[in-house]
Write a structure and sequence with these properties.
Layout (H helix, E strand, L loop, with lengths): L10 H8 L7 E10 L2 E10 L3 H22 L7 H7 L6 E2 L2 H16 L9 H7 L12 H8 L7 E4 L4 E4 L11 H15 L4 E6 L2 E5 L8 E6 L6 E7 L2 E7 L4 E4 L2 E4 L15 E6 L2 H14 L1 H9 L5 E7 L12 E5 L11 E5 L4 E5 L22
Parallel strand pairs: 15-17
Antiparallel strand pairs: 1-2, 2-6, 3-5, 4-5, 6-7, 7-10, 8-9, 9-16, 10-13, 11-12, 13-14, 14-15
Helix pairs in contact: 2-7, 4-8, 7-8, 8-9
């Protein structure tokens, strides 16, 4: 999921202080920062006599995410990512363990999505101008074709034995659709290692949790209406992570048609026919990457992908008028990978306001896809 304004309103974060019944004197400590060009909120739960440790926990989580930013930022000329891109076409480039890990995960999600997720899409995003939205414009078909020649996950080669990567000449990497989720996972790893009982990390709408808050209640995340300042439902989950990709953060409108920054790396054009897609997954790296992949694939194919991944759930928000001729924002059509208000084996519940949306369960219309083996790339628990 590329840089987005926060789609997911953490309804549960507010409720945890007001509605949860405290147990074993756990109390919350919370701080906010700006990092990776977005907002970061971290909450940790410790016993009342551990306030000093909690303050150190928060700083440690922030430091880990800031370190990921220094490694993986496309906007920092001194980042490891910038150095890798500058080395394109010049042979193998030695990588740090964390950079190699995220590139391995990126290749994996590119493969299982048939290229819908692809970190080599940077030339296309640059061509469309979405790195500076006020300068974005529809490019010529010829320039799109030219950019596509250097895009493709097969143009990135990884050498496991040497922890090195090679990029073809002209190919460039943008980790915006996976780095925030990865940073959330790394921060949670730090908090686990420090003995934190429960924690929530929200990095620009990429949300990961550890443990349960007081009262042993599920975490709750609000589902934002894609065109209005209100919620249309909520997600309740006990573990894992949530991420959303949407068409409302970086986009341009030309003759009444919206073109978002979420570009299909296979065609070179922005994905169409969908407002937002939310994923609940075992880790934040997976949620981040799969939300982008499923959004680009479209609501039906995207939800089929999620349904085939053990441990994931998802919902897609599309125009109520699926013909797209006179789209109305009064009602949105929500398709989910599970029936609403029915908890799946992974303890995820999606509740949709019937007055705000027409709900369809994708599983009721199509056969369940063949499960993908090893769909979720495991993120190392080591520091």
């Amino acid at each position: 999921m590329m840089a987005l304004r926060t789609l997911l309103i953490i309804a549960g974060l507010l409720c945890l202080h007001a509605c949860a019944t405290p147990t074993r004197d756990l109390v919350a400590s919370r701080r906010e920062w700006t990092v990776m060009a977005t907002s970061l909120e971290v909450s940790v739960y410790r016993h009342q006599d551990e306030t000093a440790q909690a303050a150190a926990d928060l700083e440690a989580a922030y430091a880990e995410i800031a370190d990921i930013d220094r490694l993986m930022s496309l906007y920092r000329p001194d980042s490891e990512l910038s150095a890798l891109n500058a080395h394109a076409g010049q042979g193998p480039f030695q990588l740090s363990p964390r950079m190699f890990e995220i590139l391995k995960a990126s290749k994996h999600y590119a493969q299982i999505s048939s290229g819908a997720f692809d970190t080599t899409a940077q030339p296309l995003v640059k061509l469309w101008g979405f790195y500076k939205v006020d300068q974005a414009a529809i490019p010529s078909a010829r320039s799109v074709e030219d950019a596509l020649r250097v895009v493709g996950f097969n143009k990135l080669s990884l050498d496991v034995g040497n922890n090195s990567a090679s990029l073809e000449a002209g190919t460039q990497i943008d980790l915006g659709a996976i780095a925030k989720g990865y940073a959330v996972d790394r921060a949670l790893n730090v908090l686990r290692a420090r003995g934190v009982a429960a924690a929530l990390v929200n990095l620009g709408g990429n949300i990961g949790v550890h443990g349960q808050p007081p009262g042993h209640r599920p975490w709750k995340v609000g589902i934002q209406h894609p065109r209005e300042a209100r919620l249309i439902g909520e997600i309740k989950f006990w573990s894992g992570a949530v991420a959303t990709s949407g068409d409302y953060d970086r986009y341009i409108e030309v003759q009444g048609k919206r073109y978002s920054h979420l570009i299909d790396p296979r065609s070179g054009w922005p994905a169409d026919g969908i407002y937002a897609l939310t994923v609940i997954a075992p880790n934040a790296t997976a949620a981040d990457a799969l939300s982008t992949a499923a959004f680009v694939m479209g609501p039906q194919a995207g939800l089929d992908l999620l349904a085939s991944c053990n441990g994931t759930a998802g919902l897609a928000i599309v125009p109520a008028n699926e013909n797209g001729e006179t789209a109305t924002f009064d009602t949105v059509l929500v398709r989910t990978t599970q029936s609403q208000k029915v908890r799946d084996p992974y303890a995820v519940s999606i509740d949709i306001d019937q007055e705000s949306a027409v709900v369809q369960n994708s599983g009721q219309k199509t056969k369940r896809p063949i499960p993908l083996r090893g769909c979720i790339w495991p993120i190392s628990q080591e520091r």
